[in-house]
Amino acid sequence: MSGIDLMHACQARGSLATATSLHTIVRHDEFAKSHLMTSMAADIKVRDFRIRPIEFKLERPIDTGGGVIRSWPVILLDLHTDAGIVGVSFAGCFLPMLLNPMVAMLESLGEMLHGDTLSPKEMDAKLRSMARLIGVQGPLAMAVAMIEIAAWDALAKAAGLPVCRLLGSAPRPIPLYKTVSAMLPQRVEELSRQALERGYAGIKLKLGHADARLDFDLIEAARGCCGADFPIMVDFNQALSVPEAIRRLRSMDELGLQWFEEPVDAMNHTGQARVAHAVRTPVSLGENWHSPAEGEQHMRSGAADLIMPDLIAIGGVSAWMQTAAMAELHGIPVSSHSYTELSAHLLAATPMAHWAEHVSVFERLLLEPARPVGGALIASDRPGFGIEWNEDAIRHSQVN
Ligand SMILES: [Mg+2]
Asked: What is the CA(29)–ligand 1 centre distance, in A?
């Protein structure tokens, strides 16, 4: 009988004192197991990668100020180790034409790591140093981030811990909002009502119509079904010019919105800071930051009152946590962008965690996609990120 079984037996018989002293034994028992697993982790080597390109047509296109998305290309990565432990990660690459180049890059990067110790930071450093002369950018950066994330998943599985515990924190509830990917009032109303019924703590609207009055109509449609005090964020997906952003956002300052997201071109650093300084509602940036250093510049210039880094774009787990640590120094609350199930672990380990975003576009690939629990997102307590592929759905969407 294991320590845990003994303790449960005592608890069942109402012997509190015995159960309490056995708790110590259980802790030793668990410590011994986790110690064994951790020392095993030190010897685990990367074997090879399984890389699968997926594309599925969206039942309803995603409408944003940055364009309409009709199909969703995704790369799935399984990192196999010589200990039989498999780490997983995935990334949406937006353009179907990037699927094959991503597969080719991941295959080559996998060959470079064959036989290396399972160590996310060292593996990441090796790949980044190899690409120093060209720079780790675009699809190459996505591929490197995917590998780092899968390595963290495998390492946490080897230690028998959820990723958040490996990062030093227990799973905890983070307020969860639903992104309403529509830009017509009737559809916004329908999806907002659905989000409310499903128990989300907030919603995010996609704005950025050429005619500002249409943006106001969408906010009114959402307010009509969610009520005056329900948290609403708005995302312009970089659709506005700087003067138009200042004019439009100022006219929305009295609407009690949680944040204005990416009002102008993400590359226009000065323009972003001008907009943030001109409005009272917090401005949130981060999904298009491609390194912690880029995020730090925006935080220092005051362009971002709130941040929401994207796990893949920022460069993986370590880069996300580094950005979150800098945000803490700046006193800036941190939310996540997309990758809900994975981000739950990083937010749990982020002292200034604010909101988690729920986008449902990846959920068909997972056996147990995230769901709001009392309006919140809670990281899985299974080892690793706690995700499993929905092989049936994947089989139907795989690109050959
Ligand atoms: Mg956004």
From this structure: 46
CA dihedral in degrees (181, 357, 155, 4; nearest 10)? -120
> Which residues are 213's β-sheet partners?
none
Q: In 3-state terms, what secondary structure has residue 47?
A: strand
To the query of whether residue 57 is one of the catalytic residues in this protein, the response is no
CATH class of 46-160: alpha beta
CATH of domain 165-397: 3.20.20.120
> Measured between alpha carbons, how far is 330 from 122 in angstroms, rounded to an integer?
28
- Between the CA of 287 and the centroid of ligand 1 the distance, in Å, is 6
Whether residue 103 is predicted with pLDDT greater than 90 in this model: the reply is yes
Q: How far is the CA of 83 from the centre of ligand 1 (A)?
A: 39
Ligand 1 centroid distance, CA of 393 (Å): 27
Contacts of 125 (CB under 8 A, 6+ apart): none
Q: What is the pLDDT of residues 240-272, one digit of tens each?
A: 999 999 999 999 999 999 999 999 999 999 999
Query: Which pLDDT value is given to residue 34?
Result: 53
Mean residue pLDDT across the chain: 90
In angstroms, the CA 131 to CA 288 distance is: 21
Mean pLDDT, residues 13-27 taken together: 44
For ligand 1, the distance from its centroid to the CA atom of residue 394, given in whole angstroms, is: 26
Catalytic residue among 157, 178, 204, 206: 206
Find the helix or strand (DSSP H, E) in which 300 lies: helix 292-301
Chain region(s) in the chain for CATH 3.30.390.10: 46-160
| Domain ranges in the chain with CATH number 3.20.20.120 | 165-397
The answer to whether 337 is a known catalytic residue is yes
Catalytic residue among 337, 345, 354, 358: 337
